[in-house]
Amino acid sequence: MFSVLVALVGVAVFDPLSACHHTEYPASGGQCCPMCQKGTVVGRDCTAESGTRCVPCATGTYMNQENGLKRCFSCSTCDPVLGLFAKQDCKSTSDAVCDVLSGFFCKSLTDSTGCSTAEKHSVCKPGERIKQPGTSRHDAVCEACQQGSFSTDGVNCTLWTKCSENQTPVQDGSFTADVVCSSGSSRHRYFLSLPFVCFLILCLVLSRVLCGDVNKCLL
């Protein structure tokens, strides 16, 4: 048991990670080298004669912390094709921050890089209406029209038209189409003139029966 404790203490003492100061990093040779500042990475480890040689991050890369790394991080891409734009451009010391274009909402959001994936707002279908418009953080919410109303564009629901007393419905309403009404005035005129036509026919028949010749009766 005592030997195990000695071994653990020995590891803790001689572990290069624990031996280095928090502003240093363990180099390949076992020595502790000063870390590079933000915006730079290690170009060459320190030696007994010289300190760490740091090099700046190239365009399209960044380093946002003090480090002992050999390579900078790649900048995030805010691709408009994917519904993103750069709210904040990438710099040598910080990554790009992306946000969503109009008509999209963010599906994956982080504090450091903003939105990483976006999706188009849902489009409501005919027979539905927009219950809740889409935002940059939430999708649009659709709901079906209630009975007695319709929607042709999937935006708003409109109540069916009510035919007047002088009209008759020739097409029933549905969730995607309105009621179609037809004016009944011509039909009414037809039925009003029918008795008069029947009276004329009856007169002609009686005249032929009684006079034998319509022309003679007229004379």
UniProtKB/TrEMBL annotation:
One of its GO terms (biological process) is defense response to Gram-positive bacterium. Residues 56-98 form the TNFR-Cys domain. One of its GO terms (cellular component) is external side of plasma membrane. This is TNF receptor superfamily member 14. It holds the Pfam family TNFR_c6. Keywords: Disulfide bond, Membrane, Signal, Transmembrane, Transmembrane helix. Coiled coil: none annotated. Disulfide bonds join C57-C72. The keyword Transmembrane applies. PROSITE patterns: TNFR_NGFR_1, TNFR_NGFR_2.
